[in-house]
Write a sequence for this structure.
């Protein structure tokens, strides 16, 4: 059960987006509709889990002078593999996501988990932490994308939810939701809602988690 | 070895980079063939578009399944017969333009489309899709006002009725002549007939539309302000569907069809 905390804690308590305010760039860019957001979320989760795990495996071997370069090399390789897989099996969605899959390399969440967690924890725990943070990112991306697709296009996963005026329905599309800036407002509201429901300070929860991990090692 | 020593640093760096590059290159070489197979060549897309098979469902899986119903044959224009000794999939008629042995001079009087020379062989695409109105798609090209216009024309089962036409490459006046690519204007070609009852090539593009239904069956609306481009389009259609173009081949097909009916 205690191990599971590593997986579940980053989903709400120390969510990378709402608590640590990381990885916003892609959260704004690819949340226009749900399907690309799902693929993006999956890609980030896989990359995070893989990079956390392999960096943790190598943590005792990596000379600190080239530590960052090696981490970025591993992350970049994982991202290229993810990008190629998306290009192969979901070419249409790959066009929508365009450069943002490649930009997972520069997603702060990935490097921050490598630096702040994987370097000081065992591979198994790092894998759980990577998965947890990926799921936390996914949750926020999915929530934002759902709101944006429903109110921006009247659909969800291309299924009609609100019949739009253009198609003879009653709903006037909210064009603002089609713009990346709308994600800012939705995220802001989400951060507000989540923090008032679960008022945990990020730094406090992190140090608590760290002490627990050391005892496990 | 100390963790910070030079040899240790080099060793770790090289091995990490080696493993990562192995990972990336094996993924790419494993997936590239699948990607290429799924990436339908652009020309085949245009052919499907001309045949009217690509409306609103233009995704790659769909294209791959549609392409299974497309058969490419190589037509010898002067003999009006298919040849089998040329690889149909790899044949690109536009690569033959500069090759004197693969092209023939067009007589000045016949050269409506201002081509000068034409390839000896042209690809013809049979559409075997049962739900498709279009039966075969043929490449057409010719001089517009400023540029060579390249496109495809699709005919129905009777080898006379136009099922669709599409121009995929042109450099006509932006906003005026380039309206030959406008979907609404192109849709006006559908159902028009090339040849009249007497067998002459009656299709024309006109500024004044007639109310006579016999004539209207051959008449396509012109584009205001783009007279020269539209003339070019009319000329290239007349050249390619005329006696020096695909017409002898179409005649043979029509006769074969009639015999099959009897």
């Amino acid at each position: 059960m205690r191990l599971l905390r590593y997986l579940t804690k980053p989903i709400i308590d120390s969510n990378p987006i709402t608590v640590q305010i990381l990885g916003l760039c892609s959260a704004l860019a690819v949340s226009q509709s749900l399907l690309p957001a799902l693929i993006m979320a999956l890609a980030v989760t896989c990359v995070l889990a893989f990079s956390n795990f392999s960096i943790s495996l190598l943590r005792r071997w990596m000379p600190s002078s080239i530590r960052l370069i090696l981490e970025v090399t591993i992350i970049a390789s994982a991202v290229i593999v993810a990008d190629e897989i998306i290009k192969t099996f979901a070419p249409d969605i790959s066009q929508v996501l365009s450069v943002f899959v490649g930009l997972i390399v520069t997603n702060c969440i990935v490097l921050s988990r490598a630096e702040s967690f994987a370097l000081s924890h065992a591979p198994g725990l790092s894998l759980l932490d990577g998965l947890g943070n990926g799921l936390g990112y996914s949750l926020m991306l999915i929530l934002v994308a759902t709101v944006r697709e429903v109110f921006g296009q009247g659909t969800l996963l291309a299924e009609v939810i609100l019949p739009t005026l253009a198609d003879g329905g009653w709903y006037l599309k909210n064009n603002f939701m089609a713009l990346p800036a709308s994600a800012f407002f939705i995220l802001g509201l989400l951060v507000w809602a989540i923090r008032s429901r679960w008022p945990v300070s990020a730094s406090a929860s992190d140090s608590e988690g760290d002490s627990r991990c050391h005892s496990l090692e | 070895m100390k963790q910070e020593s030079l040899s240790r640093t080099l060793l770790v760096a090289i091995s990490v980079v080696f493993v990562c590059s192995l990972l990336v290159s094996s993924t790419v070489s494993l997936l590239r063939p699948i990607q290429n197979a799924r990436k339908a060549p652009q020309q085949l897309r245009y052919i499907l578009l001309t045949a009217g098979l690509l409306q609103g469902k233009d995704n790659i899986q769909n294209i791959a399944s549609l392409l299974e119903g497309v058969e490419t044959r190589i037509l010898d224009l002067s003999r009006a017969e298919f040849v089998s000794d040329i690889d149909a999939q790899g044949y690109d008629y536009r690569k033959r333009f500069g090759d004197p042995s693969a092209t023939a001079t067009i007589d000045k009087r016949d050269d409506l489309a201002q081509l000068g020379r034409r390839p000896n062989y042209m690809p013809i695409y049979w559409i075997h899709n049962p739900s498709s109105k279009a039966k075969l798609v043929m490449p057409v090209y010719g001089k517009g006002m400023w540029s060579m216009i390249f496109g495809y024309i699709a005919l129905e089962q009777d080898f006379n009725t136009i099922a669709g036409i599409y121009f995929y490459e042109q450099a006509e006046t932006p906003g005026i002549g380039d309206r030959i690519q406008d979907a609404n204007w192109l849709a006006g070609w559908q159902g028009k007939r090339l040849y009249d009852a007497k067998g002459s090539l009656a299709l024309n593009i006109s500024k004044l539309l007639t109310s006579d239904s016999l004539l209207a069956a051959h008449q396509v609306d012109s584009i205001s302000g783009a007279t020269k481009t539209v003339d070019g389009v009319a000329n290239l259609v007349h050249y390619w569907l005329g006696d020096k173009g695909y017409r002898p081949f179409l005649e043979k097909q029509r006769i074969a069809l009639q015999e099959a009916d009897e």
Observations:
- Chain A has a mean pLDDT of 85.
